[in-house]
Amino acid sequence: MNYIGSKHTLLPFIEQTFRQISDGSEKTACDVFAGTGAVGRLFKRLGLRVMANDIQYYAYALNKAYIEINEQPRFTRLRQKYKGEFARLGDVPAAVTERTLAFVNSLPVAEGFIAKNYGPAGGRFYYSEENAGKADAIRRTIEDWFAEGIIREDEYFYLLCSLLEAVDQVANTASVYGAFLKRFKQSALKPLTLKPLTLYNHVTGCRAFNRDANELIEEIECDLLYLDPPYNHRQYGANYHVLETIAAYDNPELTGVTGLRDYPRSRYCQPRAAREALEHLITSARAKHILMSYNDEGALSLEEIHRILSLRGEPKTFSQRYNRFKADSNREYKRDATVEYLHYVRVIR
Ligand SMILES: C[S@@+](CC[C@H](N)C(=O)[O-])C[C@H]1O[C@@H](n2cnc3c(N)ncnc32)[C@H](O)[C@@H]1O
Asked: In the chain, where are the structural domains located?
């Protein structure tokens, strides 16, 4: 998923840095601002037991799937219920997943919250009429199947995660959901299609949370604490409100031309509150290593971050040039590359 602040392209840098700071004894990692789960997935791939957390429900749903699930689900009860759809299919998980997704992708369109509010029928153009109706049909079916006990919790989040990835692919936006385009772009006219998820490594006991990082930090303990808070005033809840509603499917009240829902305001998006929140987070952390991504254009200065990390040990900084995330291709940015930093402290106090 194309996501503001995603560390997808920075994973080699993060892995390399982790290898430098590691003493080989680390077993657990916690990613408390997990977003797409890209970094948690890296640590899982490296064999660590991961806890991934995000305040946004769509991010929680992604992490429930990518972090908690170890293998393609078998959809046993679903196959029993729809015997005809799954006839002559062995018990090979990849084939079962493919057939399940084909079944879901072929559901007839339905009129629900997405079509009424995010499609042309609702006067908004986030999705084509066809894709909005398909998204409603799939979202509702997943919910019904779970409520009826036809799919288990892991299967529910597997399908929900695949749906979120799929709707993001066909969204008619410049990038984020702060606005929709007035005319449908090519990719938005492609049919909504759920695809199998790429799952990493078999590590049992990985968990996803949907909490404020500053609350969760009081309750967890890990060898490596990875921090990737928002850098600036742009609230994720506002920029990804459509994904939030599709994930939660909770019929929220929407306002304005863009159909914004109410959303949690992150303290990390305001300089003063961010300083206090980060200081609390770092001083409360029960971890051996703290590794934090934060670039030189954030609400907090690098000196401030250094000062806060010094409360726990001797801070060190690793850096690399990084291509800027372009939220809106029509806007001109002064620079198209930025230096990305990993701030580190080995906790000794
Ligand atoms: C820079 S993004 C993380 C990107 C992630 N590392 C990735 O690669 O996709 C910051 C994330 O922090 C989340 N967030 C903001 N405030 C939070 C808070 N107080 N507690 C937990 N998560 C928060 C946002 O929803 C967003 O997903």
From this structure: 1-70+205-230+267-349, 71-198+241-265
Ligand 1 atom 15, closest CA: 266
What are 222's strand-pairing partners? 287
Predicted confidence (pLDDT) per residue in 157-172, tens digit: 999 999 999 999 999 9
Q: Pick from 294, 311, 218, 302: which is nearest to 14 by CA? A: 294
Judge: domain 1-70+205-230+267-349, CATH 3.30.390.30: no
Which residue is closest in CA terms to ligand 1's atom 5? 35
Q: Is the CB of 39 under 6 A from ligand 1?
A: yes
Q: Is 5 helix (H, G, I), strand (E, B) or coil?
A: coil
At 119 the three-state DSSP class reads coil
Could you tell me the pTM of the whole model? 0.96
CA distance 15 to 161: 25
pLDDT tens string 80-101: 999 998 988 887 889 999 999 9
In this structure, what token pair is assigned to residue 180?
């929709």
Amino acid at 305: I
